[in-house]
Amino acid sequence: MKHGALTILPLAAGAAVYGFAFGLLAAQVGFPWWGIALMSGAVHAGSSQIVAVEQFAGTSAVIGAALAGAALNLRYLGIVASLSEVLSVLSFRMKLLVIHITGDENWALTMAERAKNPEIGAPFLIGSGLVMISVWTSSTTLGALVGANLPNLEQFGLGFAFTAAFIAMARGLWRGASNLLPWSVSFVITIYAVTLGVPKAYAIIAGAVCGLVAAHIVRTRRRVAL
Amino acid sequence: MSFPFWMLIVVLAVAAFSIRVLGLFAGDTIRSSRFSWVLDELPGLIVVSLVASSLAGQSIGVWLAASAALVTAYFANHVILTMCVGVAAYGGLVWVGL
What we know:
The complex is a heterodimer.
Chain A: H1 2-7, H2 9-29, H3 33-43, H4 46-59, H5 62-72, H6 75-81, H7 84-87, H8 92-100, H9 104-116, H10 122-146, H11 160-173, H12 180-195, H13 200-225
Helix pairs in contact in A: 2-4, 2-10, 3-10, 4-5, 9-10, 9-11, 12-13
Chain B: H1 3-31, H2 37-55, H3 60-76, H4 79-95
Transmembrane segments (chain B): 42-66, 73-96
InterPro entries (chain B): Brnchd-chn_aa_trnsp_AzlD
Pfam families (chain B): AzlD
């Protein structure tokens, strides 16, 4: 658990920047600091919170804003499903707790580390998840409390840290040439969808689904060749 | 905090947790089926799609920084080192105006 908590720290620093910015945004919309803390702790899905609050600020339509935020979270179907083996050692009650503290960063880091060392499992996921939800909740709350008197940290490249981290995690998940076609399909379809104006949440799902189709074709051809 | 604010938090929290629970049941079902390969393929595909979504429409500088991160990741296979090189490359490219 400690290993996961320590390894996730650089990613947690990046999340803190986004969390702080989200806290500012939510406070400007009218959320009190304790409301932001409550939302971050109860929802624990950064990008969907940001989208929902942005939509809420523009329209004040609760259902529309919540649906927009929830759509961003659809990828968690696949993310949590892929944890099936990691979670298999836990009780059902613990599974419910762990899936709540699972986010993009600690999931991807766990899977990437597990690809290198199969002994990495639930304790790593839990340790990193506890750090992430703590950092996310406290940074969003702090953003609402402190106000806008700090420089824009994005310009120093901290926003790019997530992209670099995901690139490194993809490297950890790379299993050889059989990944090349499915991953290329996912990459190109996602880029194309975003370029066409499709919301990123749907573009990510579309890219992953098309990649799965390509992976199925690769596997079928290999089986026929054998 | 007025009613719509409370509603947004509650609806968003219920939606987020419901999707995660659905994934939990889907995972167990898929793991024991002939589609178990999907769970092996999905993590890489989602991560690649996350990277692609953050690069789409970005400047040449961001793509160059991503290339530097990719080269580092390929040879080092180390998350923190890749982040450091990526952020340094991004900062440097922004500094020179790319």
